[in-house]
Amino acid sequence: MFAPKLAPGDEIRIISPSTSMIILKEAQIDLAVERLTNLGFKVTFGKNADAHDEFFSSSISERIEDLHEAFADPNVKGILTAIGGYNSNQLLKYMDYRLISANPKVFCGFSDITALQLAIYQKTGLVTYSGPHLSSFGVKHGFDYTLESFLDAVTNDAPYEINPSASWSDDAWYLDQENRVFHDQSGYTILQEGEAEGKIIGGNLCTINLLQGTEFMPSLKDSILFIEDDEESHSRSFDRDLQSLLHLPDAGSIKALLIGRFQNNSNITEEALRKIITSKEELKGIPVIANVNIGHVHPFATVPIGAVASLKAFDGETEIFIEQKE
Fold first, then answer.
1. Is 263 strand, coil or helix?
2. Is 228 part of the annotated catalytic residue set?
3. Is-catalytic flag, 317?
4. Model pTM?
5. Single residue among 119, 138, 157 that ends a domain in this structure
6. 251-287: per-residue pLDDT in tens?
């Protein structure tokens, strides 16, 4: 089930179901709101978006209140999360999935928000969007690719491609917007060749694994799995987290694997990644593409969880198409 696409004049509600918006710099919020407003959207905020406690988050009841109000409000057409964090999975058993199913809306964010997105998809069938937070719209330079992909995903029904960006950056943009380093990118890295079509499922790897064994975990049957992780991951943690996911009963039918570019602090080399992938019998014979524009390294694509995707990876060339159909 796809929510109605966004159009100029639509209201986008900002909520903080993980870390509070209070940690964002005012200048970043101002730029983000300006960008969204210039696109024709009306930006509003959940009343608890700035609420915070000693964990830089807010109570479950405050976060649930904002989430439910955003879905229930008929004027709200899209919902953006302020930022990621660590604790959005606290909300899963308190969410009113009937309310969400009856009021389908564009719901976008990434990282820790993966827990909410996969749970919503599993419980309601609503396609959710792994893509920018509000904070992402506060990136001053190098944002064009992220914005274009977001608009491709949430404002029209046409198929679109997740092409490699011309460059990428992993510096702390939120500390110094003017001191950025961008690296050239000529393409993605093919670890295993092939072609596939399937339902695209995934998000932040360590967050996905929080859902294993729960009622909130979607099936990986016949999926194109996409995964990414942040700078807290390293080769050994990535290896075991991926292996844990591949132990799921329906993982044997995964059609392809997309891996987002790792942050520099992960220190995961291409050699190490190739060894990890070739060690997985469960991945034999399917295409595997790494360094994809997904996740914590800028810029990044917006990926609709639950949509059909197709891909090809041969002779150093890749194609990744989002079909925008269920």
1. coil
2. yes
3. no
4. 0.96
5. 138
6. 999 999 999 999 989 899 999 999 999 999 999 999 9
